[in-house]
Amino acid sequence: MPPSFADLGVPSDLVSALERRSITTPFPIQAMTVPDALAGRDLCGKAPTGSGKTLAFGIGAVARLAGKPSRPGHPRVLVLTPTRELCAQVASEIETLAAARGLRVASFYGGVGYGPQLKSLARGVDVAVACPGRITDLIERRSIHLGNVEIVVIDEADRMADMGFLPDVRRLLDKTPDSRQTVLFSATLDGDIDVLVRRYQNKPVRHEIEATEESISLAHHVFWRVAAGDRVGTAADVVTASGPTIIFCRTKHATDRMARQLDTRGVRAAAIHGDRSQKQRERALASFMRGDVDALVATDVAARGIHVDGVTAVVHFDPPADAKDYVHRSGRTARAGASGVVVSLVTPDKAGAVRKLQRDLGVPTVTGAPDLAALAAVLGEGSVETVRRTRAERDARVRRHGFENTDRSRRLNRSGSGSASGGTPHRKKRPGDGGPKRTGWSGPTTSSPRRPDRDSGWPADAKPSRGRRPGEGAAASKPGAPSRPNRHLKAGGGTKKRGPKQGYSR
């Protein structure tokens, strides 16, 4: 019989906080590391993604904090994470424990304004969960000081190395007291990570759970042979058959295009990648977690650090670069003992690369035809007839309502310069749009309506035309005359380069 959290020495108030979340039995990595973390020892934890590492170090950190609250700008626990999404999720996970002891937890990452983060520091933060770049900026601004840090946690250390953050991590560790407890978790403990262990940890206790073939196979893995033109339809069918799905594409452009194409097939989708603002990424992820969209289409920015309960399928729309990326992508499903499926779509030009990937993973080099019935059977969702009926209902909804049901996902997929789902660019209302002419424009306004936007579906009279620019005389409005004068014509019939625009502003 596995031990309970109380058996591991976890204080009763934290045990109660865990029980309120229906967490009563420790995962193996937690059973191994929590006693050493509570004892204040330096430790290294090696475990595959989704194994419960956050609670493993979170319990120890919160349990060891005692005494008065932290001074403003002087946290006592520093948790370093490689990505913004992981930073926010780790902070949320620890906060449920810290609330039982009245401790304050805050996250610090880039892509958002400094204001709320500075206010948190001014109130006092006990546990600071941060990305290396933003915490370095705050140190340079003298808004945060690491002289009182008692515990440092480095989460996903191998990912830190892959992203080039280790120099920043070393500089941050150099600013903390030598007496600190240093906890490190990583999927690998060799190379640059071993250097970090030898330099910054004091006789660390090492606990390892190998990512064996059995742990990789917690999900049902299939490799399907498809034509390039059939991939989108097959991915849409997987979402229909499986439920909440994360689809991985190789490039940012492919991610946006995939989200649009799923929309047109009646599958609500949101895209997440590095070119989206932090707010857009947070909205897309929150919408997926609430169930407002069926599929999250992502680049490898989401392969680590995103933990969403109930993800039933992962689709490798584009094959990953190597076996390591495959494991991290696939780890978004079948987490914490839940069931899940992983589908790799293999086009003829990628067959050789996929066979090498299968050999590196130690799985059979078998590629078969798409089989939705097998996925439905694995997930317990019924027979292929159920899949076909759901797909037919989805197609009927698209025919009946057009794209009304995909408006929400279209808004989520709108980038800063326009709509990623093929709509018109989203801009603020300009002066002169439906009202007086623009400030700074001279001359009378034309009375002819502007041509309606092709994709917006707005009526033609919804977008009045702009006022004339300087030099656009009455001749420009005569029948047959161009709507705008040639920029290079001059009165004498020759040409001349037009100078800076004057008398109006865009």
Task: Write structural notes for this entry.
This protein is an alpha/beta fold and 506 residues long. The protein has helices spanning 12-20, 28-38, 53-64, 84-98, 115-123, 132-140, 157-162, 166-174, 192-200, 213-216, 231-242, 252-264, 278-290, 323-330, 351-361, 372-379, 384-401, 407-412; strands at residues 43-46, 77-80, 105-108, 127-130, 151-154, 181-186, 205-208, 220-225, 245-248, 269-272, 295-298, 313-316, 341-346. Helix content is 36%, strand content 11%. The protein has a seven-stranded parallel β-sheet, with helices on both faces. Helix 3 crosses helix 4, helix 11 packs parallel to helix 16 and helix 16 packs across helix 17. It is globular. Mean pLDDT is 77; it is low at 382-390, 400-408, 415-430, 432-467, 473-478 and 499-506.
Could you write a compact summary of the structure shown?
The chain is an alpha/beta fold.
**Structural class by helix and strand composition:** alpha/beta
The outline comes out as: globular
- Note the beta-strand portion: 5-15%
- Average pLDDT value? 77
Compile the SSE list and pairings.
Elements: H1 12-20, H2 28-38, E1 43-46, H3 53-64, E2 77-80, H4 84-98, E3 105-108, H5 115-123, E4 127-130, H6 132-140, E5 151-154, H7 157-162, H8 166-174, E6 181-186, H9 192-200, E7 205-208, H10 213-216, E8 220-225, H11 231-242, E9 245-248, H12 252-264, E10 269-272, H13 278-290, E11 295-298, E12 313-316, H14 323-330, E13 341-346, H15 351-361, H16 372-379, H17 384-401, H18 407-412
Parallel strand pairs: 1-6, 1-7, 2-4, 2-5, 3-4, 5-6, 8-13, 9-11, 9-12, 10-11, 12-13
Helix pairs in contact: 2-3, 3-4, 11-16, 16-17
